[in-house]
Amino acid sequence: MDVQAAAMDRMAQRVRAIETVSHAALAFAEQKHRIDAQAGLDASHSRMLTELINSLRQLTQQIKA
């Protein structure tokens, strides 16, 4: 294998490595976005339930008074 062919082969290997890392990074970012979005949704749901429970407690106290 001549020098130019070896250099082209190394360059092709680097391109494939960069593509592999890029795909892995994109997949990681997408998964992190999904997890963060789910965590945000869970937190909002929890806050809404807490507010609902507190409102029901207040209404119950007002009705009893």
Structural commentary:
The structure is a single chain. With 65 residues, the chain is mostly helical. The protein has 1 helix and no strands. It has one helix at 3-64. It is rod-shaped, with a radius of gyration of 28 Å. It starts with a helix and ends with a helix. The mean pLDDT is 96.
Record keyword descriptors for this entry:
95% helix; 0% strand; 65 residues; single chain; mainly alpha
User: What amount of the residues lies in strands?
Assistant: under 5%
Number of strands: 0
Average pLDDT for all residues: 96
Q: Structural class, from secondary structure content?
A: mainly alpha
Protein topology:
Blueprint: H1 3-64
Structure summary:
95% of the residues lie in helices and 0% in strands. It is built from 1 helix and no strands.
